[in-house]
Amino acid sequence: LGSLRGIRWPDAAFLQRATHFRLPFRARLRRMADGQRVIDDFAAAGIAVRRPVATLVAPGRTTPNASRLLRETLSLPLYPALTDHDQTRIIAAAQTILARLEPFDDA
After folding, report:
1. What are residue 23's DSSP bridge partners?
2. Can you tell me the distance from the alpha carbon of 93 to that of 8, in angstroms, rounded to the nearest whole number?
3. Per-residue pLDDT tens for 44-100?
4. Do residues 101 and 31 lie in contact, with contact meaning Cβ atoms separated by under 8 Å?
5. Among 28, 23, 25, 29, which residue's Cα sits nearest to residue 9?
6. Cβ atoms within 10 Å of 95's Cβ, excluding its own
7. Are strands 73-77 and 7-8 parallel, antiparallel or unpaired?
8. What is the 3-state composition of the chain as percent helix, strand, coil, each rounded to the nearest 5?
9. Considering all CA atoms of the chain, what is the largest pairwise distance in Å, rounded to the nearest integer?
């Protein structure tokens, strides 16, 4: 999945610090609806992609960086009980779905 130009993955140090049950990634998603479309595409393939955080808790405050990260960050399932078949299915779906996304300007 590292060859997908439009996706930013966590660095290796982050992945080595603990056991993770979700693999967060950032995609260039300009609107919340764009992220929902990605979530829906994965759901159609039987894969539960989620937003790590559902909403921002900053009533009445403008938080542009937090808002951008909320919009751009999604997560794939990644846990010890995934079978080889499940892993292959998730990777294949990610390669297809995420390859359609617009790359970041610096990608």
Report:
1. 76
2. 17
3. 999 999 998 777 776 667 788 888 888 899 999 988 888 999 999 999 999 999 988
4. no
5. 25
6. 12
7. unpaired
8. 40, 15, 45
9. 46
Q: What is the pLDDT of residues 12-53, one digit of tens each?
A: 777 666 666 888 888 988 888 999 999 999 999 999 999 987
Contacts of 95 (CB under 8 A, 6+ apart): 1, 4
CA distances to 24, 49, 86, 90 from 103, in Å: 17, 19, 27, 20
Residue in this structure with the two tokens 């294949």, named with its chain if needed:
92
Comparing C-alpha atoms, which of 27, 33, 23 is closest to residue 7? 27
The tokens of 102 are what? 């617009």
Q: What are the C-alpha distances in Å from 39 to residues 5, 15, 49, 58?
A: 19, 22, 5, 25
DSSP assignments along 53-99, one per residue: -S----TT---HHHHHHHHHEEEEE--TT--HHHHHHHHHHHHHHHT
Residue with tokens 């995420």: 98
- Identify the DSSP state of 101: S
